[in-house]
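Model the whole thing, not chain by chain.
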Amino acid sequence: MQTNDVVLRIENLRKLFPAERKIFGKVKLFVHAVDDITFEIRRKESLALVGESGCGKTTTGRVLVGLEEPTSGRIVVEQEDVTPLLYEDESAAKRYVRETYVKRFSSMSDQQLKSLTGIDAVYAQRFLDLGKNEAKFVDEMLQNRRERVWQMRRRIQMIFQDPYESLNPRMTIFDIVAEPLNIHGVGNLKEREELVAKMLFDVGLTPPETFMFRFPHELSGGQRQRVAIARALILNPSFVVADEPTSMLDVSIRTGVMKLMMRLAEEHQMSYLYITHDLAVARYMSNDIAVMYLGKIVERGPTEEVLKNPLHPYTQALLAAVPIPDPEMKRGEPNIKGSVPRPINPPPRCRFFDRCPYAVKFCEDNDHPPLKEVAPKHFVACYVVAGEAS
Amino acid sequence: MLLSVRDLRMYYRTKMGYVKAVDGINFDLDQGESLGIVGESGCGKTSISMTILRLLPDNAEFKTGSVLFDTGNGPVDLVKLPESEMRKYRWRGISMIFQAAMNSLNPVYRVGDQIIEAIQNHFPDMPLDKAREKVAELFTLVGLDPSRMDQYPHQYSGGMKQRAVIAMALACDPKVIIADEPTTALDVIVQDRILKEIRKIQKKLNMAMIYISHDIAVIAEVSDKIAVMYAGKFVELADAVTVFKRPMHPYTYGLMHAFPSTVGEKTELVTIPGEPPNLLNPPKGCRFAPRCPKADSVCLDVDPKYREVEKNHFVACHHPVQPKEVVRFYAD
């Protein structure tokens, strides 16, 4: 589905890190941190990206906000391909446009170009309008690149895990929350003051005047995370990457921050990519959930559906391992072998093969399984579940 | 009674005054019994174990109380012992699994040798081959391959290091083991294995255990009885099921309803308004009163007594939550 309601769409995103250092010769070993993942998020909805440490969930978020360059793949924000903006180097951006569009489009007939769908259709039309002039098309895609990078950064913001480290201790709360406004040159001082005051009020730091000129160390953990949220939302982004925003907070404080984030999403017409290791928190913070294992999404679907009816053996093990806050409830035994390997040049077979209790020869002989829709909107990457291996 | 703690008070001295981290703690622990202490960061739960083991920093001041430990020939009060005597009971009588196991192993010594060192410290007469045998036994007990005892910590995964630290804590056959957030830095699947291992060993060796955590779901799994700690005090103590099903302190009630779960109905989560108090100048009356929806003028004025409201159910509250009562918290 690709409607205007989709705020973010990630296609075949990959991020590899070199796993060895070489002065001469080519690096051959790579950590496949994020390996060919695809998902989309609709407006006002949020997707929880869950998995154990090292599964690639944080790397995904970092690529989205431009802290890491993607190795390959396409990222579409509100019907605009922002991938060329994520590359620091202009020639890399150019290469991306040539590889993704020019090469493909120039080998197609007009008929074929017109039959493309989604975001491809938009760019195919431009390609036709420009009389199939490749150089012009590339130029247009990279037009005003600097400016558009700024715009993109306004639209995608991030909330970090540790509110004790993500706020500059030498800046006042006002300066911290107003910094994005300064950087993007929004309003004059008086207007900024009003915006910050309103934002602080919105995140529950009331009355704002008493907080504005204090320093982070004077605030508690919950209050600091509220400041971090205020800073992320002050530019009215359409999309926020929240990387474990409540995992450092105590239970009695945490619910307040969780509820606040949900309320703000509604009020500001905003979506979250909610990165967490905690499935119980994910249940309350997301409409959809994607479970990652070694750089791959192994299962994706509506949150309640996935939690009630997990299909991938990894999701099942993960859920069975979550302690239940009820001493009378007995949970199952997680059915999983061994421990998480390092994803360095993984062999071409199911990533979960070594640990899977149901693995058969088919899983070893074939490359990692694609995500398959096994129930409405419920996708699983497993040959056994999909009934393709026996 | 194996361990009997009475009116334990320990304050930290700071420039601005005393931080009342442990302020009148009482509990009993029987052989083979496991007590879970749950509380939020800074409530003093780790300080309790440090006070019992007398591993306190220089600015800590022991105030009052007694820690009666049954040695087999009658109880001794650990707080009154000279340091040289205390050393006999540390590790052999009461041992501890520390938080952040990753950092509690020395990276330049083989894991096995570190455990042997602990054993030989307490049993200087034990010959090396005997000690190695003991370590191999311990490794098997905690689910590690004994052939790994001559490896270095960096060759271990996080879960394996945690197992090694547990093996070390068990090295001198303690009667009581204190586990302070032993699984907090671990991923759920590894956490699950370690939790089951700890519980299994504790039952098998019939040890008493004090398990400290901020995570009530983890506490629910490993405890026979649970103490809920708030701002330096126990506010409620009872058997695990009672604490979860019939909490009487409003704070316990709030915690139980603030904790999300992956199973069961997706219920509305409770937000407890405000923040825990600063232990430098805790509020005069009940320390939870400023956040409590049931608080009245008495609560703000008089510190409630920690008392046994029904058999083996201790609560410190002027207005305990009644069965079936619904407490509404007003946040925002």
